[in-house]
Amino acid sequence: MFAPEIRILVIDDMPSIRDLVKSQLKTMGFKTIYEAEDGEAGLEALYRHHKAGEPIELVISDWNMPKLKGLELLKKVRSSAEFKDLPFVLLTSEAEREQVTEAVLSGVSQYVVKPFSAKIFEDKLKIVWDKHKK
Ligand SMILES: [Mg+2]
Questions:
Q1: Please, what are the domains in the chain?
Q2: How far is the CA of 58 from the centre of ligand 1 (A)?
Q3: From the CA of 12, how far away is ligand 1's center (Å)?
Q4: Distances, alpha carbon 112 to alpha carbons 72, 100, 125, 130, in Å
Protein backbone atom coordinates (compact mmCIF):
# COMPACT_ATOMS: atom_id res chain seq x y z
CA MET A 1 0.00 0.00 0.00
CA PHE A 2 1.04 3.61 -0.44
CA ALA A 3 3.11 5.02 2.40
CA PRO A 4 1.27 7.40 4.77
CA GLU A 5 3.74 10.15 3.84
CA ILE A 6 2.84 10.40 0.15
CA ARG A 7 1.49 13.66 -1.26
CA ILE A 8 -2.08 13.23 -2.53
CA LEU A 9 -4.08 15.65 -4.67
CA VAL A 10 -7.88 15.49 -4.45
CA ILE A 11 -9.67 17.26 -7.32
CA ASP A 12 -13.43 17.79 -7.23
CA ASP A 13 -15.71 20.76 -7.79
CA MET A 14 -17.87 19.79 -4.82
CA PRO A 15 -16.38 20.72 -1.44
CA SER A 16 -18.49 18.03 0.27
CA ILE A 17 -16.94 15.31 -1.91
CA ARG A 18 -13.44 16.67 -1.32
CA ASP A 19 -14.11 16.59 2.43
CA LEU A 20 -15.46 13.03 2.23
CA VAL A 21 -12.45 11.77 0.24
CA LYS A 22 -10.04 13.62 2.52
CA SER A 23 -11.58 12.18 5.66
CA GLN A 24 -11.45 8.65 4.20
CA LEU A 25 -7.80 9.15 3.26
CA LYS A 26 -7.02 10.48 6.76
CA THR A 27 -8.75 7.49 8.32
CA MET A 28 -6.44 5.28 6.24
CA GLY A 29 -3.48 7.16 7.75
CA PHE A 30 -2.56 9.54 4.94
CA LYS A 31 -1.28 12.87 6.17
CA THR A 32 -0.47 15.12 3.23
CA ILE A 33 -3.54 15.89 1.16
CA TYR A 34 -3.94 18.82 -1.20
CA GLU A 35 -7.10 19.97 -2.93
CA ALA A 36 -8.13 21.57 -6.20
CA GLU A 37 -11.62 22.61 -7.30
CA ASP A 38 -11.43 21.81 -11.02
CA GLY A 39 -9.22 20.08 -13.57
CA GLU A 40 -7.40 23.22 -14.58
CA ALA A 41 -6.51 24.06 -10.98
CA GLY A 42 -5.53 20.43 -10.50
CA LEU A 43 -3.14 20.45 -13.44
CA GLU A 44 -1.68 23.72 -12.24
CA ALA A 45 -1.15 22.21 -8.77
CA LEU A 46 0.60 19.17 -10.28
CA TYR A 47 3.12 21.38 -12.09
CA ARG A 48 3.55 23.72 -9.10
CA HIS A 49 4.39 20.83 -6.74
CA HIS A 50 6.63 19.24 -9.36
CA LYS A 51 8.63 22.45 -9.81
CA ALA A 52 8.91 22.84 -6.04
CA GLY A 53 10.55 19.40 -5.86
CA GLU A 54 7.64 18.01 -3.86
CA PRO A 55 5.71 16.10 -6.51
CA ILE A 56 2.20 14.76 -6.04
CA GLU A 57 2.31 10.96 -5.82
CA LEU A 58 -1.38 10.09 -6.15
CA VAL A 59 -4.29 11.90 -7.83
CA ILE A 60 -7.93 11.30 -6.90
CA SER A 61 -10.00 13.21 -9.46
CA ASP A 62 -13.65 13.77 -10.12
CA TRP A 63 -14.91 13.14 -13.65
CA ASN A 64 -17.44 15.92 -14.14
CA MET A 65 -15.92 19.31 -13.30
CA PRO A 66 -15.86 22.79 -14.83
CA LYS A 67 -12.96 24.09 -16.97
CA LEU A 68 -11.19 20.76 -17.45
CA LYS A 69 -12.99 17.47 -16.92
CA GLY A 70 -11.37 14.50 -15.25
CA LEU A 71 -10.98 12.55 -18.49
CA GLU A 72 -9.29 15.49 -20.23
CA LEU A 73 -7.05 15.99 -17.22
CA LEU A 74 -6.13 12.30 -17.32
CA LYS A 75 -5.19 12.57 -21.01
CA LYS A 76 -2.99 15.62 -20.35
CA VAL A 77 -1.33 13.87 -17.42
CA ARG A 78 -0.64 10.67 -19.36
CA SER A 79 0.74 12.55 -22.38
CA SER A 80 3.14 14.61 -20.26
CA ALA A 81 6.73 13.62 -19.62
CA GLU A 82 6.44 14.52 -15.94
CA PHE A 83 3.28 12.68 -14.95
CA LYS A 84 2.82 9.83 -17.41
CA ASP A 85 3.27 7.19 -14.67
CA LEU A 86 1.44 9.04 -11.90
CA PRO A 87 -1.19 6.95 -10.08
CA PHE A 88 -4.52 8.47 -11.14
CA VAL A 89 -7.95 7.49 -9.81
CA LEU A 90 -11.16 8.81 -11.35
CA LEU A 91 -14.35 9.25 -9.36
CA THR A 92 -17.33 8.69 -11.61
CA SER A 93 -21.07 8.84 -11.20
CA GLU A 94 -23.32 6.04 -12.35
CA ALA A 95 -24.27 8.15 -15.40
CA GLU A 96 -20.64 8.28 -16.56
CA ARG A 97 -20.11 4.58 -16.21
CA GLU A 98 -20.43 3.76 -19.89
CA GLN A 99 -17.74 6.31 -20.74
CA VAL A 100 -15.30 4.52 -18.48
CA THR A 101 -13.88 2.48 -21.37
CA GLU A 102 -12.34 5.65 -22.74
CA ALA A 103 -10.76 6.37 -19.35
CA VAL A 104 -9.33 2.85 -19.25
CA LEU A 105 -7.90 3.26 -22.74
CA SER A 106 -6.50 6.61 -21.66
CA GLY A 107 -4.58 4.97 -18.84
CA VAL A 108 -6.64 5.55 -15.70
CA SER A 109 -5.19 3.55 -12.79
CA GLN A 110 -8.63 2.71 -11.34
CA TYR A 111 -12.05 4.28 -11.23
CA VAL A 112 -14.48 4.42 -8.33
CA VAL A 113 -18.21 4.82 -8.84
CA LYS A 114 -19.86 7.29 -6.43
CA PRO A 115 -21.17 6.81 -3.83
CA PHE A 116 -18.54 4.44 -2.49
CA SER A 117 -17.78 2.93 0.89
CA ALA A 118 -14.49 3.45 2.73
CA LYS A 119 -13.75 -0.25 2.20
CA ILE A 120 -14.19 -0.09 -1.58
CA PHE A 121 -12.08 3.06 -1.75
CA GLU A 122 -9.26 1.47 0.22
CA ASP A 123 -9.41 -1.72 -1.88
CA LYS A 124 -9.14 0.36 -5.06
CA LEU A 125 -6.12 2.24 -3.70
CA LYS A 126 -4.42 -1.07 -2.94
CA ILE A 127 -4.99 -2.17 -6.55
CA VAL A 128 -3.55 1.14 -7.76
CA TRP A 129 -0.52 0.66 -5.53
CA ASP A 130 0.05 -2.86 -6.88
CA LYS A 131 -0.26 -1.57 -10.44
CA HIS A 132 2.26 1.24 -10.06
CA LYS A 133 4.84 -0.15 -7.65
CA LYS A 134 8.15 -0.89 -9.24
MG1 LIG B 1 -18.20 17.10 -10.14
A1: 7-132 (3.40.50.2300)
A2: 19
A3: 6
A4: 17, 10, 10, 16
